[in-house]
Write a structure and sequence with these properties.
Blueprint (H helix, E strand, L loop, with lengths): L20 E3 L29 E2 L4 E2 L14 E2 L5 H5 L2 E8 L5 E7 L4 H15 L12 H9 L3 E5 L2 H9 L9 E5 L9 H5 L6 H17 L1 H17 L6 H10 L2 H13 L20 H7 L1 H8 L6 E6 L6 E4 L9 H4 L2 E5 L6 E4 L6 E3 L5 E4 L6 E3 L8 E5 L2 E6 L2 E6 L3 E3 L3 E4 L1
Parallel strand pairs: 1-5, 6-7, 7-8, 9-11, 10-12, 11-13, 12-14, 13-15, 14-18, 15-19
Antiparallel strand pairs: 2-16, 3-20, 4-5, 5-6, 16-17, 17-18, 19-20
Length: 425
């Protein structure tokens, strides 16, 4: 597990904006962006056999955010950043704060592009405004503080690579740093994610960065709430790290950092597949439903800044086959995590499907054969090619979409959003 302590010291001025940026501190009304193919198809279902009815062209609309070309925003670390290059970091994406400062997410070569883009989406999710929350309704000050403090994610291949860089090249770089390892950040839809064989530290480490580089300075009242909740959990015996670890964190001033990410992970279902206690025995709860009963202060602290659901765009690993479910399914333990997702896309060319949950979902297929079922809620399927490239027909309770990559079968979907038009079904 990566250290919670921030490395280095705050920089004197924000980094200059560079190519490959997205804006932080914005409302979370749309899902994140993802690289998308030109169409998708599903030959595995053929509808009810009733006569098909052609669907109209719908209304003009701009391209959906799920069609953005994220991979083009990954750039090589410039030669002027000699210390980062000496630390083995070779690529990065940036997020622009409202004040124009850039927050860097850097990575070594063993970190896949999918992992780096996923880290950015999680980071942007944390910085997206959370309507109705006490401290998260406007996060622009947090994003600005992160930029002003030179906040940087340093995403290493392994823990050993991180430790080596911290002893060497990173000591030459000013800024608030947080590390993360490729070995502890599985992409949704991968075997490690589906089987929960690798603990996902992405949400933990990125919140460390947000808290240390932004919240502490810009939201002192919220930081105090986090510290009060930490003490409450210690007093109640809900959070019980080993004495030596607790003493180390206390000396570092990182107690609230380590405590709150335990609550966040449980809130978003990352530990529910395993029996409590979670976090290797440190936190006595593993399911969201237990928080109100046993750690009300921790629950309130999470809800004061973050939304109920994981609202960022999720791009599944291209190796995924079968049907990925956003609905809780007792036979599929990974759905204890995925039930909190809202917006998901397939990638690659493998035949696969998506099943939505009761929320308003956004679903996007890939270049293989796809079945896309929105489930309950007001659901949208996205295609990243013009409406004219597709034939859309109703066939009983399904909608058949024939396009450049084949046939899709849609069920319980209310809207189809093409690159240039949107159809209400």
């Amino acid at each position: 597990m990566a250290s919670a302590a921030l490395l280095g010291c705050p920089s004197a001025s924000p980094q200059d904006p560079v190519d490959g940026t997205t804006q932080a501190g914005a409302p979370s009304s749309t899902p994140g962006s993802t690289t998308a193919p030109g169409g998708s198809g599903d030959a595995s279902a053929t509808g009810s056999g009733e006569s098909a009815d052609t669907v109209g062209d719908g209304a003009a609309a701009p391209a959906h955010p799920a069609c953005a070309d994220d991979e083009s925003q990954i750039i090589a670390i410039p030669k002027s950043e000699a210390a980062l290059l000496q630390a083995g970091l070779v690529k990065m994406v940036t997020v622009l704060a409202p004040n124009g400062g850039a927050i860097r997410l850097t990575a070594q070569g063993g970190v896949s592009d999918a992992q780096l883009l996923r880290a950015r989406r999680v980071f942007e999710f944390y910085l997206s405004d959370a309507a109705g929350s006490q401290f998260g309704q406007d996060k622009s000050a947090v994003a600005n503080a992160l930029a002003d403090n030179g906040a940087t994610l340093v995403y290493f291949n392994t823990e050993a690579d991180s430790e080596s860089a911290q002893r060497g090249a990173l000591q030459q770089v000013e800024g608030a740093f947080q590390d993360l390892y490729a070995t502890e950040s599985p992409v949704e839809g991968s075997a490690a994610y589906l089987q929960s064989t690798v603990r996902d530290a992405t949400y933990e480490e990125l919140f460390h960065l947000v808290q240390g580089g932004g919240i502490v300075e810009s939201l002192p009242a919220y930081q105090q709430q986090l510290e009060d909740a930490t003490q409450s959990a210690l007093d109640a015996g809900v959070w019980t790290p080993p004495a030596d670890v607790l003493a180390e964190w206390e000396a570092e001033g990182s107690l609230s950092f380590e405590y709150i990410i335990s609550v966040i992970d449980v809130y978003y279902g990352l530990w529910e597949h395993a029996p409590a206690p979670s976090f290797y025995g440190e936190y006595q709860l593993a399911a969201r439903e237990d928080l109100a009963r046993m750690d009300a202060a921790g629950l309130a602290a999470v809800q004061a800044f973050l939304p109920e659901a994981v609202g960022h765009w999720v791009e599944l690993d291209p190796s995924f086959t079968g049907t990925f479910s956003l609905a809780l399914d007792d036979a599929q333990p990974y759905t204890l995590k995925s039930q909190h997702l809202r917006h998901v896309g397939l990638s690659g060319t493998a035949d696969a499907g998506l099943l939505g949950n009761a929320a308003d979902n956004t679903l996007r297929g890939n270049e293989g054969a796809n079945g896309l079922d929105g489930g309950a809620g007001e659901d949208t399927v996205v295609y990243c090619a013009p409406r004219g490239d597709f034939e859309v027909e109703r066939d009983g309770e399904t909608v058949i979409v024939d396009g450049p990559a084949g046939r899709d079968v849609l069920r319980d979907v209310e809207h189809v959003h093409f690159l240039d038009r949107i159809i209400d079904l």
